[in-house]
């Protein structure tokens, strides 16, 4: 899922580091990756506990609605971590690489679904 | 998490059926429960695959954002199933039980977080 | 825009009152109508002041974004007033009129766009 | 509401043009300003017609809900125009001015309310 902004395929997948945030290859900052992964793991556990609660015939609709909304809040938080990392590492530096048109277009498209 | 609308505790948890949707005990319709559980199981699997994709240093921010948004869409779908069951089984029949004030208050409060 | 739940046209538009919330004609509760109208008038004024601020070449994007979001919050509030009135006056009493299927279907459809 | 990123006040408000997008002063791109203003004018007209419809005692709740949602969609469109202009003119060029930290912080804060 790594980002290629030119047509030529890269022979070598860059290791994370100085050549990671170039016009050829944009990698998610490590800190964002780890923080987002942690939040997703928590959300998955919460989702599993809601799913299990639905095995009880006495579960109440509004309690389930509230739990689902709590998970959506957690996912908003995870998306926020990813978006901030993207803005800092890739969008704010776009003019120095020359891919600002493409990056803004792509981000606007992704945010539409928020 | 079953709903009690009176202060007196129930001695016996009603089995699902005719005495389930009374002012004393409101149970989630079985069909909603099963359909919501199925959707949550799928969302949990999707969430786990996103979390795993974050172990790859070459993962791209915008791909992750899009995946998180897809899971949020799935959770909206699950919440929709639950809300519809609640409206049909509990809210639309509230005037026949006399608990409309409480049910509407509670639902408005839960929807605030949507 | 009054709601007709039968195919036969009404000869007489009911005056607001006892025959307003029947299967033939569902009117918005007067209190909801007045409160929602007040909120919409305030939102419209706010929107006009944002529009005017855009005539100034020195206006800053993020300030405009924040102002638009404030108006959306006000509209959420107005929608909330209308939804609460609908749940209380129409949905919670649906089983006594026998139009619960139609009302829930219609509401779920309208909430999709929220 | 123009953006100042330094503490010293500007003696002269820059005219729109080359000195507009500097670390000292960020102006909204003219095209975004005009397009957003047009959309807000349409939304305001729509809002006024909903407000007027609420003077009719026969107005139906769900019709009002749908109309309010349509205006919120229009405001989402206007916010989108503003956000795109901001990303292109200010965020994508931040690293060339050195204010990326501040711009990303501010944008994340503004998007929280979306």
Tell me what the structure shows.
The structure is a homotetramer of 114-residue chains. With 114 residues, chain A is mainly α. The first copy, chain A, has one domain (30-111): Metal-sensitive repressor, helix protomer (Methane Monooxygenase Hydroxylase, Chain G, domain 1). In chain A, 62% of the residues lie in helices and 0% in strands. Chain A is built from 4 helices and no strands. In chain A, helix 1 packs antiparallel against helix 2 (61-91). The first copy, chain A, is elongated. The relative contact order of chain A is 0.13. Chains in contact: A-B, A-D, B-C, C-D. At the A-B interface, helix 1, helix 2 and helix 4 of A face helix 1, helix 2 and helix 4 of B.
Please give a quick description of this structure.
4 copies of one chain form a homotetramer. With 114 residues, chain A is an all-alpha fold. Helix content of chain A is 62%, strand content 0%.
Helix % of chain A is 55-70%
The biggest sheet of chain A, with number of strands, parallel, antiparallel or mixed sense and barrel status, is: none
Total strands of chain A = 0
**Strand percent estimate of chain A:** under 5%
Give the CATH superfamily of chain A. Answer: Metal-sensitive repressor, helix protomer
Question: What sequence of helices (H) and strands (E) makes up the elements of chain A?
Answer: HHHH
Largest interface: A-B, 60 and 60 residues
* Tertiary shape of chain A: elongated
Mean pLDDT of chain A: 86
Terminal CA distance of chain A reads 20 Å
Structural class of chain A: mainly alpha
Please compute the radius of gyration of chain A using only Cα atoms: 19 Å
Low-confidence stretches of chain A: 1-15
Number of helices of chain A: 4
Give the assembly state of these chains: homotetramer
Report the CATH topology name of chain A. Answer: Methane Monooxygenase Hydroxylase, Chain G, domain 1
């Amino acid at each position: 899922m790594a980002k290629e902004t030119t047509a030529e395929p890269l022979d070598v997948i860059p290791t994370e580091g100085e050549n990671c945030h170039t016009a050829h290859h944009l990698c998610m900052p490590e800190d964002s990756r780890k923080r987002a992964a942690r939040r997703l793991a928590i959300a998955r556990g919460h989702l599993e506990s809601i799913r299990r609660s639905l095995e009880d015939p006495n579960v109440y609709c509004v309690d389930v609605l509230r739990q689902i909304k709590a998970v959506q809040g957690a996912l908003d938080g995870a998306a926020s971590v990813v978006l901030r990392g993207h803005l800092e590492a890739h969008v704010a530096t776009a003019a120095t690489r020359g891919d600002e048109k493409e990056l803004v277009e792509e981000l606007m498209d992704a945010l539409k679904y928020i």
